[in-house]
Amino acid sequence: MKPTRAIVFQKDAGQITGGGVFTIGCASNADVASSDFFVDHNLDMTFELIAPDVSPGSLPTATSAAADPEFDPRCDLDLIHVDHETDRYVVLDDSQSPSSTKGFFLDSLVSYAGNQAFIDARANHSQIGGDFGNQAASGFELVLQRRLNPHLPSVENTTGQPNAVDVNPWIDVDRIRVVFRDFNLASGDTAPQIERPSGHLNNIRSTERPEPLDDNNRQLFPDPTVVSDHRLNSIGNGFNVTTLQNPAEPQDPTTNPVQLRRLWQPHFDRDFVSAGELLNIPVYGPGMLTQKLKQSRLAPEQQLNGSSLMLKNASGSAALFLRPDFDSTSITNTENDNRWYRLFQFAEVPSRVHRMLGNYLNQTRLPGKININMLRHMEVFAGLIDEPMFADLDNSPDNSPFLRDTTTGAFRDRWMELMVERDGDPVSGYFVYDPTPAFPASGDEIQMTSARVPGTPNARPFRGTGTEEFDSDGSGTLDPPEDTNRNGILDPGEDLNSNGILDAEDRNGNGIMDSGADGSVFRTLASDITDGDAATNRHWLEVGDTGSHTGPNLSTTTVERHQVLSKIMNNVTNTSNTFVVFATAAYFEAWEEPTTGFVRVGGRVNIQDNGTTNPGWQQRSVFVIDRTEAYKAFDGGTGDFDWQRLIKYEAAIE
Known about the structure:
- By secondary structure, the chain is of the alpha+beta class.
- It contains 12 helices and 20 strands.
- The strands form 9 sheets. Strands 1-6-7 form a 3-stranded antiparallel beta sheet, with no helix packed on it. It has a 3-stranded antiparallel beta sheet with strand order 16-19-20, with no helix packed on it. Strands 2-5 form a two-stranded parallel sheet.
- A hairpin with a 6-residue loop joins strand 17 and strand 18 (599-604).
- It starts with 5 loop residues before the first strand and ends with a strand.
């Protein structure tokens, strides 16, 4: 018979504060007054408290009765003491029927052997906990469960559902292996035989997690070099002794203070404020929390185990969103690739501006968003970041750093990084923002080659996540961009591989088949790519230096790592709908090459033959165009398109 008995908490079981500890005590029979563990180790007829590790209060003696206050529970829930037997818990036997026998939960478990350290037995409830006959050590697996939806009651054996499905089943949250340890206390033992450091109390040593949410670091309680209270556990305490500055010595608030537990899982008491917060979602079930949480905090390369890039190691959604190509060095190895990032084409969080203008689903444009490709003022970018720690304005407006990131020791200028990512590759040694030389022919004109000018061949504007590079000709190799003049036509001399196709597979010339994520706001920081070490590749808006990227503090989560990206995503776009257009109409000579059909445009034609320096008729005008009006300009009934609706303003200049 496999043990499947359970403890079900009821309404008066108690509450757990955030970051707090809830202690449950149990004994194997009702012959004791409470679940607290006492030992008269010095044989003075007073029993000292060994577990839990809390303030002992008034201690029982050899003459104390079970109802005396000395036996009042020191655990939050005591499965033996009479004070906790009403409306706090119910014990279920192996057939899931209530049992009123105190101590039943542990009674007879000493005859079982422990199972595997972790086993997924959800497919067979009768086997829950695994096979107890395959391990030598006696013990059991303690499983913590909750309802799938804690806010709904159980709806078991619902009529009309196949196989009597429970629509709100119990699911695993955590489990820990309990191994029995013998006290070996015998009648007639003397105090030295009982007391530490060499007595039987050394056997009463608990196995604990220094970080409660990390099951991968379970360890025996350390043995302090100084004997203080003969306790080798931290049960009921708000800290684990292994987190002391010196675990070998007793805790002292001054000389040996506690280092607080740092591994945590963020839970917000609010709705999503940005689609960027989808990067914080775990990609494991609740039962794997203590196995995967620590891993999920890491950067994508570290989550996927570096060069091995094992998909099964992905614990957080950021590893899949930001690392869609699991082998970016090969354009043919795509079996582990994903396109999760495309979800962001369809996901957004409506702003307050949306709600002020009515139902945002009926709107044809997004009000208030800034086109990141048209952003030309660092003050506007600083306003988007909206955090002086990440974008601190410098006193000098002409020299870098313009927007200094003060969170790391390494130099980072957020404004320069934006221009490098969007407008071109970095130039070594360039830290002056001056597009024109101050003194031509004096040596200062070298700055002209260093200015970040938008729209150059090296520019990498931010695109939507639906735009990606692909092997268009099926050659298995990444062809360099051939449209050197960006006219969209295969001009003479541009067909580098003589295939008759205008290849543009490697648009940015980085030698990598970029996904849609690489061209969007999910791209990797350019300066990190150039060092050739994939392990240090940060997201271009990621908080922290390469050290915090490869080895983050235990308390760091993806919430902090990608907080700037999350804020930026909700307030920028890569699409503009309103344009100021300057147009000139005139006559030019033109010649069509009969073989290729290419048209070459020549000089102006003076159709008026008036001998002016600017010959010929021309007209210049300026227009304000709103292309969102295209939705209203089209008449579905007649098929007409009223293009004039798109023009909001026009004026003739000449």
